[in-house]
Amino acid sequence: MTRILLTLCFALAALPPSFAAGADCAGNPNALGTERVLAVDPAQNPAVGRKHFPQTLPLQPKEIVLTFDDGPLPETTERVLAALKAECVRATFFMLGRNAAAYPALARRVLADGHTVAHHTYRHPLLNQMSVERAEAEIAHGIAAVETAAHGGSSATPRTPFFRFPGFASSPALLASLKARDIAVFGADLWSSDWNRMTPEFQRAQLLQRLAATGGGIVLMHDTQQHTSRMLPELLRELKRRGYRIVHIVPDVKKAR
Questions:
Q1: 227 catalytic, yes or no?
Q2: If pLDDT is split at 50, 70 and 90, which confidence band does 4 have?
Q3: Which of 119, 222, 227, 248 is catalytic?
Q4: Of these four, 6, 126, 225, 254, which has the most CB atoms within 10 Å of its CB?
C-alpha cells in the first residue's frame, strides 16, 4: 500500500502546474476544470485543425481545446480570464503583437493564470496576399512583440512554437517555412463565428450545436469580442453539464530540450 501511495504522489507531482480537475477547483467543486494537459510536438503535429488541414490533435470524443484570437484587450480579455479562472479551465491565446505590446501587463496576466500564450502576427494581415519575405517578417515581428510583453524578452526560437494564420490565409511556402522552424500551425475544428454581430445567447447555442456535430475538437473564439466574453461563463457550465472535457495544450518540453 505504501508503495502504491508513493507512486501516486510522484505521478501527481509530475503534473504541470496548470492542471486542475473540476473537483479541485477552489471555491467551485462543480467546476468544469481541465481534464488533462497535451504536450504538442510541432514535428509530429505541424498543422492541425480539420477546417483547414487533413488532421487534428489526438483528442478523444468530447474533448475540447479552447483557443482565443486577437487579444489581449482590456475588459473583454479580463472578462474571459475571470470566466476561465472561475471554472479552473486553461486555454490558449493566440495574441497579436500590437495588442500584447500595448497591454503587456495583460499579456503577463494571461501567462500567470496558467494559459498558453501563442502567436497570431503583429498587425493581423492576410499573409497570403504579400510576399513570402514580408509575411515572414510580419510573423517574426509578432512573435518578438508577444514574447517581449509576456516573458520580458524574445529569442530566435519562440518559447511557445504555436502559430495561427489571420483569416487562416496560409500558403504552401509559409507552411513550409514554419515547419522548418519547428512552429506548429493551428487551424480549428470548429468556430463560434463571433466575428459576426450576435447576442451572447445565440452564439452559445450555435457553438453548442456545432460541438454536438463534431463531437469536440479545437474551438476558435476571440477574446476581443464583447458577446464572446459575456457568453463564456454559461458556455463553460453547459459544457460541464453535457460531459465535455477540456484539454490544455502546451509545448512539448522534451522536444524543447
A1: no
A2: very low
A3: 222
A4: 225
DSSP string computed for 77-136: HHHHHHHHHHTT---EEEE-HHHHHH-HHHHHHHHHTT-EEEE--SS---GGGS-HHHHH
Bridge partners (DSSP) listed for residue 102: none
34-256 topology per CATH: TIM Barrel (3.20.20)
Q: Which position has the grid cell 500564450?
A: 117
Q: How far apart are CA 114 and CA 94, in angstroms?
A: 14
pLDDT band at 8 (very low <50, low <70, confident <90, very high): very low
> What does the domain layout of the chain look like in residue ranges?
34-256
Residues 6+ apart with CB under 8 A from 229: 75, 76, 77, 79, 80, 83, 223
Query: How far is residue 181 from each of residues 48, 100, 140, measured CA to CA in Å?
Result: 16, 22, 11
248 is catalytic: no
Q: Looking at residue 43, what is its pLDDT?
A: 95
